[in-house]
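Homework help board

Subject: predicted structure for assignment chain

Our instructor gave us this sequence and asked us to write out the predicted structure in token form, then describe one feature. I got the tokens but I'm not sure how to describe them. Can anyone check?
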Amino acid sequence: MGKIDLILLHPPSLYDFRKEPVMYGPISDVVPSTPIFEMYPIGFASISEYLERNGLRVRIINVALKMLKSKGFDVAKMIKRLRPIAFGLDLHWMAHVQGCLALAEEIKEAHPHIPVILGGLSATYYHEEIVRDYPQVDFIIRGDSTEVPLLELIRCLKEKTKISHIPNLTWRGEGGQVHSNPITHVPETLDHVAVDYRHIMQKVWKYRDPTGYEPFTNWFMYPITAVFTCRGCRYHCKTCGGSAKAFHRVANRQRPAYRDPLLLAQDIMDIRNHLKAPIMIIGDIFQPGDEYGFKLLSALNGKGIQNHIALEFFVPPSREKLERISEVIPNFNLEISPESHDVVVRKAFGRPYDNVALEEMLKNAIALDCKRIDLFFMTGLPEQTLQSVLDTADYCRYLLERYGESRRFIPFISPLAPFLDPGSLVFENPERYGYKLLYRTVEEHRLAMLSPSWKYALNYETKWMTRDEIVYGTYEAALRLNRLKGEFALIDTKTTLATEARIKEAVRLMRRIDEIASIEDRERRKRELATLGLHISRLNMSTVCEKSELEWPLHWIRMNPLRVFKTLFMKLQPNILKGE
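My token output:
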């Protein structure tokens, strides 16, 4: 098979999660993954495809998922068997900081001379601190588009040539000096890269490692897929590390880079041809302008797409846009995050629309036979008080009384946790926005992930809400919302009662952890926490809602076997524009 050039490893959020009794809380309840955040970044797929297309051998191993699925899985033993030219790890969001650095340390212990490369927005933000203070990391590729610089770096490592010319690169020189090349590779389009599920299928077959490539727990039972429209953003949401100003500050991106809508349509068709699974379009298709969105829809028109397709919107779409979507995509679903029912809070956060626009979208989408509309609310926002959090359920009752008869509108609430994003407006200027930042350095965040509960991991509080109010306000609002969903038959009675019991048990355990945290004797604290281990593990996978509440309908036949078989043994033509 030949030597592998690059192995991309995805770490868990907490490396010793199988041993440590940590109450993660509802930090991942409204995403498919668990609090271990075992979903590897979509950039792994584009990196693998791009490097392989350019002559390198790449493998992806989802270490977090392997650990999650097997208590006996030995990470160190696996790493010792691997001998690539380099290892690559993702540190995109700070929730992975402890697991990422611990896994890098494991690699260095087994292979002192094999380079470890980090990438991602958080690695970019903290590039100098990480390379200076953590010897297990050799290189960081900065920015939001690492495919081209990473290709250059791996080639230089193979050929043992100089690396000083590589854009976006931070590395440790002789004597421990940190060198940082400017972020000059900032592609204006995404037409040269692709998230190609055909490529992933071939790699699964090649390495006989379905778990290593599985995106998250139970993906084979619920194989949701995704395509991406862009890197970067036009909006300025205050706590988001992916906002326009954060991308500018961290990744030197002046404007979003978009994927050509014709290529995006082909990405969707390739998934449709192989899987009868839901497809998530990441990024508002109208963010680049109406022409982009309508061009994508025109390219999909008449293609007979029966997959459920979920469209994400940053602002409520007009009736005209929804009509066009409904004409082209019969099983269309919507996702939007108003964050708060309170327009003052929403505006302070950075969402530029009012409740009139939101409710008009709900009315139109239901009238046009939208199969499902997910609304996501959040706690821990600027200008948000505890009462405002609790009033979320009252607003959702109002919406359900007006639009809930079809049972297609589903509200969720979750905390802004575990961390404020580095590079976000609030992280850079916490006092200006009414926040108190509790952790700032890499090491402070790393240690926070070892806290006994998510309350102590939170790296902020606000002048409107204390840590206690953010934590217990989230649970109370979730409890009210759960009862509301049961009342309006959005979930069945069994699910309603089970979720209520979990929330109440979570609150009880959080109170008990608070008591234990006040114990001065360290060893006694450790023993007391250990006694809660089994109770905590039962609640960690999901608390404020069932994971099944997030699922769009799925055909009982999940794939096209003949098409998959052909893909495994054919040479792929990449979905990129000619000349790239």
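Reply (TA_rk): Your tokens look well-formed. For the description, you could write something like this. The longest strand covers residues 332-339. That's the kind of observation they're looking for.
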